[in-house]
Design goal:
The chain has 135 residues and is α+β, with helices and mostly antiparallel strands. It contains 4 helices and 4 strands; from the N terminus they run ααβαββαβ. 41% of the residues lie in helices and 29% in strands. The chain binds nickel (II) ion.
Amino acid sequence: MKRFSVSLPDKLFKDFGRYIALHKYVNRSEAVRDMIRSALVAEEWLSGEQVVGVINLVFDHHQRQLHERLTDIQHEYGQNIISTTHVHLDHHNCLEVIIVRGRAKIIQEMADRIKAVRGVKNSSLSATSTGRGIS
Ligand code: NI
């Protein structure tokens, strides 16, 4: 474990204190560690390395051919998909959660294509890491 001290302007220090309280951190160090890890994950995605992510989408399965189109896209990226879970939310709506892995550019492209399919009500990509580059 290494220690280092950080100088912050008063306002930023105050804002940081509020952030820590809001997010229930037990101390400043844990908050700073999380921020550094987030920055490293963002860098992994920018550098195009192997990443892991979760794509979620909500859609109306009654909409014509929508489900087929979504399945077609997923088959195109079959090598990048670890697992897909489908939940029937109600009479109309389905939720799909797709766990993905691969080069950041490919994963982002798949997420963009899914989001752009007409009839998808909501979709987002949660970008995370293989964990290998982060302690
Ligand atoms: Ni369903």
